[in-house]
Input
Amino acid sequence: MIGEEHAKEKFMAPVAASLLDRGLRTDWARIKDGVAQILGAFSQTKGHVTSIHLFRLGFSPNNDDNPNTVYISVDYLCQETKWRPVLEEIRKYLQHPRYVYANLHAHMEHGAIDQWAAFPLVPTTREDWEKHQKAWNLIPKKIPYTQRVDLGSDISVSKYIKNNDGETVSPLVGTLGCWLEIKTKSDPEWAKVALTNYHVIRPWYDGFYVDGSDIGPPTAVSKLERMDKSGILPTENNRPMLEHPSRAKHNHGVVRLKQTVARFGATVPYGKDARDKLKGIVSFFDNDEQRLGKVLCASGYKRRTANNGRLDWALIRPVANRVGDNTLPSLYEWGDKYESVAFFPDAETDGQPLQQPTNHGLRGLEHGVDHIYKVGTTTGVSVGIYSETKGDIKLSEDEEPEVVEQGKFKVKITQDQHVAEPSLSEEFAYIQGGQLGDGAKLIDQLFSAPGDSGSVAWDKKGRALGLVFRGQKPTGVLKTKLSYVTPIHDVFEDIKAFSEGGITNIRIAV
Output
């Protein structure tokens, strides 16, 4: 028999702001550290934690009815049959007189942090095409293709890769977050570069590990292992070439147009239009016009912010004729996705450029009230709800993969570090889904999904907030996810620090 916990849909939302005001705003960091210490004290959970969070989690669509939950996820080596004493100790800790006012529950389950990058197989059958199109929204947004590449465009490295079964797969599809401008020691004039995630460009290097749909640490003593540890400097000889459209979207677009021509013929207007578009996009790739530019520099995986947040960024030096702009989506685009204008950014953002961040950035948002916005390759325009309570996470790429038996299935887990001693980082998390002030409606679109890696998030006035890099979906939660975002100020400061004085200034492109 399957228990209610595994059969019914769950709902997730930020904890009530009133609870933070009662003391949880200052107590949460201490509570989180205490829970982590308990997990580290038991041999059955030590080293297996993948995340610790705080949010409302339960079976009611009305968030006020769901308990405030300390959510813990662990890897698949952690045996569930041995969790009881750990959870008992955590629950006893949460009932300490100092924290009893918060009435916190504890929940532990298997789970991992997701990459928001997709790597679909090259479609060979209609079934493949339909499956991948449904999962990753892979049809190119603009046919015929254009030279300009704008904020929110799909990108990938300009090569195919092989998975462990020898199949040809497209490289990770990510998102061009926005255009930046930098000044360097050698050139005091502003120069445009594109911003995305480092993990989007990793497939360029030998050693990229793909097994089925799983991405793991690189092959030992490979070029990618070195890049993960050191990052990519401007002096690196073999720097990745990026492209737009990504070949994953291009290939699916070709399949769709060929199907249209085959169905209608090239003599009727609809079929002739498809034939002409097909000829144009194939020629675009044949002439290497899809090339966007080479990576200028990238963070690798070892770097952290001053507050122990992860840094996962890459700058792309573009081919001159491919530089686009940072125009934000129109209100028509928001209206196509959301019925209520309560989910829209302010009207003055309509078709306006992305703005410079404020001094406060993410830290200036109001918990459970303020929305953040982005446009990604897969989800398009989307809105998330700010959660002030930061969570701790650990990534699978930090560790070596090992396959273990879990009942009837083989599950990939990770152990032993390849980058550094595995440690939890502390991250800003945004919850896609939750109630507005009147509690009228749940948002049922996802803020981020595979392919959205590298998106830049902004506030209701169009001011840049941060760089989206990962996400997580608790078991049973169907319409919401956690999305992790690095503050844009931290990204800018690390870019300058990584360049060791080579990059002297940086801003959102104007």
Q: What stands out?
A: Residues 1-111 form one domain. The chain is about 25% helix and 30% strand. The chain has a mean pLDDT of 86. Residues 7 and 377 are 31 Å apart (CA to CA).
